[in-house]
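A common beginner's mistake is to predict each chain separately and then try to dock the pieces by hand. The better habit, illustrated here, is to supply every component at once so that their relative placement is modeled jointly.
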Amino acid sequence: MIDNIPYDRPVPGHRRAERRLAARVRTVAEAYALLAPSLAGFLLFLVAPIFGVAALSLFDWNLMGAPSFVGLDNYRELAADPEVWRAVLNTIYYVVLNIPAQTVLALLLALALNRRMRGGKALRVVFVLPWMAMPVALGIIWSWVFDPRYGVVNQVLGMVGIDGPNWLTDPAWAMPVIASVNVWQYTGYTMLILLAGLQAIPHTLYEAAAIDGTTPVQRFFTITLPLLRPSLFFVLVTNTIGSFQIFDTVFVMTQGGPGGATDVLNFHIYQQGFQLFRSGYASALAMVLFALILLVTAAQFLYFRKRTVYDFS
Amino acid sequence: MSRKIALSAVAVATLLSLAACGGADDEDSSGGTVTLRYALWDEVQKPPIEQSIREFEKAHPAIKVQIELNNWNDYWSKLQTQLAGRSAPDVFWDHVSYFPKFSKEGVLTDLAPLIAQDKVDTSIYDSKLAEGWKVDGKVYGLPKDWDTIGLFYSTKALKDAGLTPADLDGLTWNPDDGGTFVKTLQKLTVDENGKHPDEAGFDPKKVKQYGLAMQAPTGQQDWWNFALQNGCALQDKPWGRWTVDQPACVQAIQFVQDLRLKYHVAVPATVTNPPNGPSLDQVVGRGEAATAMDGSWMLRAFDTALPNGGFGVADLPAGPAGKGSVYNGLTEAVYAGTKHPKEAWELLKWLTSERHQKAVAQAGAVWPGITSLNDVFADAWKAKGVDVTGFKKAAEGTTMGYPLTEAADVYNVKALDIFNQVWLGQLSPQDAAQKITTEANAAIK
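With all components supplied together, the output reads:
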């Protein structure tokens, strides 16, 4: 809408300023009017609950009786709670399993699909399909796939003589399975963003580099990767945030088990809030998760700020 | 992010329904018919119940019943969230471990005036069951059923091992060498080379069939029974403090761990740990275990997995302190906030009537809450060639009820986590016992 500001014709000084101000006010008002619906949603469903949760974290409330103010007790308790630390470590473990695998896989796929080929468009759709499906439904289907007796995975392994493990009830395997399901689900989406980033890189750069006698590998590291940073930055930040919030796959596939092996922070929050009905304590945990994500995102911003080029011209 | 949606949806839904205080319109009532919601958690019992409810609907054309089925784990968090949101089902299964909390919070309808008004004869119910649900003259539910734990076995596995059902009678166990119980389970455990755990060259990593399968989210079907047989009390008194850290209890927990990790006669926890492990009827049904400790409510499931006389039920072994089984019963309860109290009471009367409980008993689903119908249940199984009277004998012998406590939520959630770890060998029975005792007691105000 900025482009629609009427072009200022030469008019006497103060009138010109007046008109310019009026135009700006109109533009701003217009912008806010257009933003209003999403802004209202944003305030009501995202900002307000954050403050609500922050306030609730200072109370003890079982949802039924009256809440009682306990100050910072919930935070003191969680700092000393070994299960919280286990949940934090489990969450980090999940992020570490998930993000690198997903990003590298998506990058390879994007590079492969970033060329003219038969069925390329159809393949793109296929890779993005899992991202459009319901995570809960997917979790149920993957539980069948990984069923130790009847699941496809162990049947295939059995054909080559490998006795497959009890994927979801073995503490060593449960988290890798959860992570792989999510890698599978979100790689297509990440690939899509990276593909768009790849296509924004001017061809002339590659042509010039080719004339200079560079190898494809050199071109990848000196042109593709640096110029892909804005896209990489975007997917890394949003996917990392999303990964820290992992819940549905765990809820459907393992319920935090076996023996707490997949008890990630968000599941722990659910358990405290909706199984033990300690909504104050759950809120305090949610604030911890919020702080953790904020910290990691800030670190990512700092790392990429100096290294990212947005302007290709 | 879509990952967040599930959680925030639950949160928002809860907050909204809290704010609305049950403001949701009930469209059905306007049309003259009332739709009642009836919540339960056992899929195995659902078909005969559903069938009987269709009859109820025929007799009451103005009432429709919608069954809401959620598994045990989800049932309680869902029900309690609904109670907090004032949108609970009109009639639901209630369990003694949640009863104290519910009666205190006033979410259950006191049935005493209704019973008096309609002159309902409550003497037909097992008094042991009915009494547990009365507080200060108020009646918060009528008995639905009762259950004890037994040793389910596969007749084929027994035969293959050269044993007869009589060989499972009179078994004993002890914390030192496992007793005849472990000896028998060793005979029923074979590795891929046909060796038993007490033989040289037995490979515990390549077991073809285990002697025993166990699975219990709370302990009801596994270590509580051994605890009782070892003279352990889970609490110092009803409504009292947890005493799981007592030596007799720790020994029982140790024994269950030993069955898996020391004697190698029980299916490993990586297979059976709840909530993801397959139910035990499946484990025994596909020949991975010869026997399983499970509740009488699982009879129909075992009958499906091992039809035509493929299974039988033996008594649990006796421990150092003798025989014993966990005994429990459920009630049908009416939500205090129901918008259709009259209709809900009609449904409850049906569910606790002789006609309904007889139909459910005839289908072999659960032992009925009405004493005179016990034979109907036993006969239904006798006709199928299964002798289930052991459950009844167990109920008449030494039993332990479900612990009565305000800390049911904490105990249930923590026990699932903690005992999963014990059975996997990640946590010692002593540490586990201390942990669950401390955490559950901390939740008692």
